Amino acid sequence: MDRFVVISGCSGGGKSTLLLELARRGYAVVEEPGRRIVEQELAGDGAALPWTNGAAFARRAIDMALADRSSAASRDSRDGWVFFDRGLIDAAAALEHFAGTPALTSLGAAHRYHRRVFMTPPWPEIYASDSERRHGFEEAVAEFQRLTQVYPALGYEMVIIPKSTVELRADCVLRHLQT
């Protein structure tokens, strides 16, 4: 859907903070599937945590991203942009990385987002691990590099969001969507 906009990029690069700013400005946002899954898994048996079973985690992320898209599609299109903190393409890329299971081509073609995807670059000054993000900065950069190959291969135009204040980053995203 052309009104579905993905904010992707480097883990710990400020995606969630940017989404909070877009929500503050009145836009619909969808939280990152990965964070929600980790929270659920930590409260449960932990069978699908990315650091214990990456493939199971990625499969859950795909299911959650599809459900998120379905839920967002039921909203009135006059409500405007819907911003996704990651989404289906990121989840399919994770499944290919963790399990070698090809998922990108079929899912990427069947479930399109806006033609521009916004990428937060690696930003070591703001990167932080926590109980839900246990991987290091090097792994985050490797993931960013994979995603910067995946999105253009699926026909998306990438816009690298500058390292700046969250307000200026949100302005940048909205400005690029006007063209």
TrEMBL record:
UniProt xrefs under InterPro entries: NadR/Ttd14_AAA_dom, P-loop_NTPase
Residue span, NadR/Ttd14 AAA domain: 5-169
Record-linked Pfam families: AAA_28
Protein name as annotated: ATPase
Source organism: Methylosinus trichosporium (strain ATCC 35070 / NCIMB 11131 / UNIQEM 75 / OB3b)
